Amino acid sequence: MFKQKILIILFFFFKGVLFSQDIGGIAGEEFEENKPKEINELAAEYTETIDSLSWIPYFNEYSLWETHKIHPYKNDFTKLTDTISLILKYSECDFIHPICGEINSDFGYRRKRFHYGIDIDLERGDPVLASFEGVVRIAKYESTYGRVVVIRHNNGLETLYGHLHKIEVKIGDKVEAGQIIGLGGSTGRSTGNHLHYEMRYLGEPINPNDLIDFENGILLSDTLQLNAEHFVYLKEVRARKYYRVRSGDSLSRISYRYGVSISKLCKLNGISRNSIIRIGQSIRYN
Ligand SMILES: [Zn+2]
């Protein structure tokens, strides 16, 4: 009886997942709502559901296969108490550097915005390679990333390749490490040809320098022991608060509204008391 209860709970959990998310080829699966079902029927459907999801890497941990939204996950790993061990490499071919080139811009703050990736210099049309084997989750044009590909890997990570000139894969494609997934370019919010390369675990960005020796294009270690230390930077990023200036605003008004002194506002924003603030400008107040 207990087992049956668990089975029913699991079945309805998965049913919810199937309907709430776009999961590519299996989203069209229908469930009959009205007719009560025998427990063995439910069990058979549950098993089918599990089988039909098995092609999605790491589905149990992600519980989501979203092919429109680039960043659909909501996690906070700054509070991670365990260490998650990810095996990145069993043999030499398991990691291939996406493209060799100079680092134009590193992971970290770029003025006010946090840069969650690494920008690698390239020439337009240079082939960009998948870092690990996996399945393509995103392959589309987006205003910021331009032509962008996201791959969910069998090791649990997701990698993102932005500003591509051309995409050479489609959603659901199984790719090998080193396979060409696109050609480099400067699409989206970009000022020159480069690859914007991100690495995330369950949506939480990881500094790619923690895994990769970018000078030599090799992994630092065959395994990644992920813990809260990797995400400690996010505490500061998430604590920062901004206000967008509206008509009639002044520093003293913003200071009053948020209970922050004018001198603190000036320090946070690198401005002076006499600086003119413009409508639409974002002012950091925390
Ligand atoms: Zn970038």
Structure description:
With 286 residues, the protein is an alpha+beta fold. The protein has three domains: 50 residues, no CATH class; 155 residues, Glucose Permease (Domain IIA), CATH 2.70.70.10; 44 residues, LysM domain (Membrane-bound Lytic Murein Transglycosylase D, Chain A, Roll), CATH 3.10.350. The protein has six helices and 19 strands. The strands form six sheets. Strands 2, 5, 7, 8, 9, 11, 13 and 14 form an eight-stranded antiparallel beta sheet that branches. A hairpin with a 4-residue loop joins strand 15 and strand 16. Helix 1 crosses helix 2. The chain is globular, with a radius of gyration of 23 Å. It starts with a helix and ends with a strand. The chain binds zinc ion (ZN). Zinc ion (ZN) binds next to loops.
Task: Show the helix and strand layout.
Elements: H1 2-20, H2 39-53, H3 59-62, E1 84-87, E2 103-105, E3 108-110, E4 113-115, E5 118-121, E6 127-129, E7 134-142, E8 146-153, E9 157-164, E10 166-167, E11 174-175, E12 180-183, E13 194-201, E14 204-206, E15 212-213, E16 218-219, E17 223-226, H4 233-239, E18 242-244, H5 251-258, H6 262-269, E19 282-284
Antiparallel strand pairs: 1-17, 2-5, 3-4, 5-13, 6-12, 7-8, 7-11, 8-9, 9-13, 10-12, 13-14, 15-16, 18-19
Helix pairs in contact: 1-2
The structure holds zinc ion.
Q: Radius of gyration in whole Å, from Cα?
A: 23 Å
CATH fold type of the largest domain? Glucose Permease (Domain IIA)
What's the CATH architecture of the largest domain? Distorted Sandwich
Query: What is the ordering of alpha helices and beta strands?
Result: HHHEEEEEEEEEEEEEEEEEHEHHE
* Number of helices in the DSSP assignment: 6
Gross morphology: globular
- In total, how many beta strands? 19
The top level CATH class name of the largest domain: Mainly Beta
Instruction: Let me know the largest β-sheet.
Output: 8 strands, antiparallel
